[in-house]
Amino acid sequence: MVFAWIRRLFKRHPEDSEATSPTATTKQARTKRAHEQARSDEIDEALKRDRFLFKDRKVVLVLGQEAAGKSTFMWQAKKYSERTTGVSRSGENLHSPHRSRPGSAGSAGASSSNRSKHSNSSGTGKVHLSRWVAEISFAARLQQRGTTMHTTLVRVRRKTGTAQQRKWLHLFGCAEALLYVVDLSCYDEWADVPETDETMVHSLLLSESLKCLSTIESHAPRDARLFGCLRLAARTVPHTRKPATSPLLACRCACLSEQIIVLNKVDLFRDKLAKIPLAVCFPEYEQPAGDLSVDVEVASAVEYVAQLFMSQVHSPSGMPERRVHALCMNVLDTGQLGAQFQMLGEVLYQERIRRVLAE
Ligand SMILES: Nc1nc2c(ncn2[C@@H]2O[C@H](COP(=O)(O)OP(=O)(O)OP(=O)(O)O)[C@@H](O)[C@H]2O)c(=O)[nH]1
Questions:
Q1: Where is this chain compositionally biased, Low complexity type (predicted)?
Q2: CB of 247 closer than 6 A to ligand 1?
Q3: C-beta of 155 in contact with ligand 1 (< 6 A)
Q4: In terms of domains, do 38 and 184 share one?
């Protein structure tokens, strides 16, 4: 009796009946669609401006799997450039990746408000791309050449959404190089990736990153301006099977002749190798025999992974020969980064010389 009365009470509750009614569902769907449309329109507007600002600019497109360290790499490149040139670009539209980490919510909020404030202009008076794209000016001092190499590193922010990221694709056709960041330490992690619309396949995350790079590579030059997005439905770690969802971005830029593969998180890779040998996940890997030092083991494993990624890069017929370079780093180790950034500057410098000679 009491239960029947309670049930009736809940049934009659006006909010409850509205929430479950079909009209409420339609209303919600309509609001969601309107919100998405508004976002899409906002992005289209931003894109118009970005298209203008991108004209004749020298940019390096930064891509890579989720949490590979793209933002950290760009942040460190920014700091290095500021040291190199002595110019502090306070208004650049890249926020510190460290600030957005859990536990520092206060500073993350401050950072986002600063970002929107500075996304259009900076202390240096330079006009920046929209808030959907992160960009930093990169400058590397080339000691032997007695000159400084300048370019801009760009990446489409993850919050833009995979479908919307495609909209920037045609801008990246003009990039002078592609920089692909790989998280070395994820070699023993697994991902459930969609194989077809309905089926999922359980695959090693590093292999997926490899496949992603090969997707970029395998497209014909006329498809150079297309963007492909692959969403990892779930990322799972063996043993714990803990899911963590996020998108993985891939881009097809077949016209780019310079490709730089950044093998990142070598510090974590080194620690992990002592516990889980690379051959456990990649049985084709032949570990060097004998009683070797940890450094040699790590170098050999890094070399193997570098070869795997570099072998994905092919020169499409009729296109200039594509050059690929691998940089192994720990982007948190500021002490070692100077040499790596100089190497990056040198690669880009040589590419510019080649382009000038080819014209
Ligand atoms: N130990 C170590 N941690 C790193 C390294 N590089 C990046 N990280 C950490 O990895 C995490 C993810 O780095 P992000 O730079 O945010 O990665 P991202 O590729 O920009 O991530 P998304 O925007 O999600 O695609 C951060 O907590 C970084 O501090 C590294 O070389 N070594």
A1: 102-123
A2: no
A3: no
A4: no
